């Protein structure tokens, strides 16, 4: 077990020119909320394949001085953080001091990272077995062939054009690339509009904001025919097939619920295979009910918090309330659908005692089936500042929170992706490997 460490790894810094180095005078610490803390050594894992390091401009890393044991700033260069790939949940954010005039960081995750014996370590857990977005499973030549094939097979389908030319080939979206490869979860973006104004929305940011959205939002409303045309063959032929409305490049799919309902009814006339899922903000319980009646298999509701005040200050909903998302989960559960939350993990907020209590309540109230523990892709200072949180309260550590929730709710599943029908109905712990 050469990858278990007994001493905290060294802090890394960037020279501002693309070079990243270790500082052997400082041990890595992690940020939780606004503050820096030592990271228990047993919470470090090797940076998984597909992970990357980022330089954080205008920020100085914080570490523990190897000689004195005191916390201090690294003056040698800019702070460094890690992007940890899908299927992994970060336990601490990178700790740094932000200089005046530092630019707001773009919408990525900034997990702490350290260096030891030529290896990079991050405080994280693998929360999901599914290999659906593993980098080694993507081969460009095969993806290109699959893309060409879909564009030729559906020449008049605007959604296929969007998914292949924009999502797959321009943004290298892992979900769209899996569609090109004819496997697993197939993305179905459907709505150009939204009824929330999330601070960290990845598909729309106002032009006067200090960050840009990472993806361009869908600009048209697909028809039910366009959806049915390529999703039926996917459900029929892909391994462990899922079709999923509600993607990162669109608004809120429930605003298009009538089209979704029409497409589900039509799809199920042609095939009973696979699973039909929606990723949503859960704002319209009546629409959720109608979709479940039509044959929706699963729903995943995104949230940054189980507390209304934290949710509302981030989502800034137009015409719905936090209680509607609870209601949507309840309705879906009552209708027999699989219910997940897409839970944006922010160390120091998610593991606060107040959040833990609110999450327990949500799980009990909705009979939740699964939590997808996602990393919150956002500049930490910017997020806490925008939602007006100056003190995140008492925290227990993300690892401890995961353990406590699992202990209290042994049937609640943990993961990172929407499960296939084979997992929902059969063995949830099944190994996917093709
Ligand atoms: S619900 Fe989704 S699409 Fe709507 S503002 Fe929030 S992140 Fe953006």
Write the layout of secondary structure elements.
Elements: E1 10-14, E2 20-32, E3 35-38, E4 44-46, E5 52-56, E6 59-65, E7 71-73, E8 78-83, E9 88-90, E10 93-94, E11 96-98, E12 114-116, E13 119-126, H1 140-153, H2 158-168, H3 174-180, E14 185-188, H4 224-237, E15 242-245, H5 257-270, E16 275-280, H6 285-294, E17 298-303, H7 308-315, H8 322-334, E18 338-345, H9 353-366, E19 370-375, H10 380-386, H11 398-408, E20 413-415, H12 421-425
Parallel strand pairs: 14-15, 15-16, 16-17, 17-18, 18-19, 19-20
Antiparallel strand pairs: 1-2, 1-8, 2-3, 2-6, 2-10, 4-13, 5-8, 6-7, 6-11, 9-13, 12-13
Question: Could you provide a short overview of the structure?
Answer:
The protein is of the alpha/beta class. It has helices at 140-153, 158-168, 174-180, 224-237, 257-270, 285-294, 308-315, 322-334, 353-366, 380-386, 398-408, 421-425, and strands at 10-14, 20-32, 35-38, 44-46, 52-56, 59-65, 71-73, 78-83, 88-90, 93-94, 96-98, 114-116, 119-126, 185-188, 242-245, 275-280, 298-303, 338-345, 370-375, 413-415.
Overall form:
globular
Contiguous runs where pLDDT drops below 50 for at least 5 residues: none
- Terminal residue distance: 28 Å
Instruction: Report the sheet with the most strands, covering strand number, pairing sense and barrel closure.
Output: 9 strands, antiparallel
CATH class annotation of the largest domain: Alpha Beta
Fourth-level CATH superfamily of the largest domain: Aldolase class I
Mean pLDDT: 94
